[in-house]
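Duplicate of earlier report; SMI1/KNR4 family protein input re-posted below.
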Amino acid sequence: MTDWPDEMRRMRAARERVRAADTDELWRFEEPRPPADADRLREVAGRLGHELDRAYVSFLLAADGWPALFQDIDVFGTGELLGSPAMETARMLVDSMEPDALMRSGLARDALLPIAASTTTIDFFVMPVMPVMPVMPMAPGDVVAPVIWIAGAEVERYPSFPDFFRHMIGMNLEEAEVLRAENDG
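Output:
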């Protein structure tokens, strides 16, 4: 089980390092949203027609999305999942993926849920989803969905939502170092 308060503390510390080095004010710096509640998550699952990944749900119960988690990438909360301009744009990006790119990644366009997206580029992040009634019954927690970074084609794949989040912490720390070096140079 992921200790989201600790992970969020680590993310805030990494984002603060970026903010301190971002003398040109390139990026937005926002706090995570207040937690989602179980009723809202049931509404999302009902509207989408499938359950959400348990690790992603555990994050949403700690923070109902996080705008500008890394640079201009917003992690979606229940508001986006229920429908928003950001979700519409992300779905258009999924729909625009070339069949070859989907095939190379082993992805089915209609089984991808956008969970984060850039506000200025074609970068977005998806999780493969399962229907509410899977063909073979599974015990809760049997399947962990990866998070897949796409920019026209697959860029990177993280084994789980917590792995994605931790990688974003690392990317923020790297960004802070790059900005600091540019300021010193």
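Residues 4-131+142-184 form a domain with the SMI1/KNR4-like fold (CATH 3.40.1580.10).

Merging into the original ticket.
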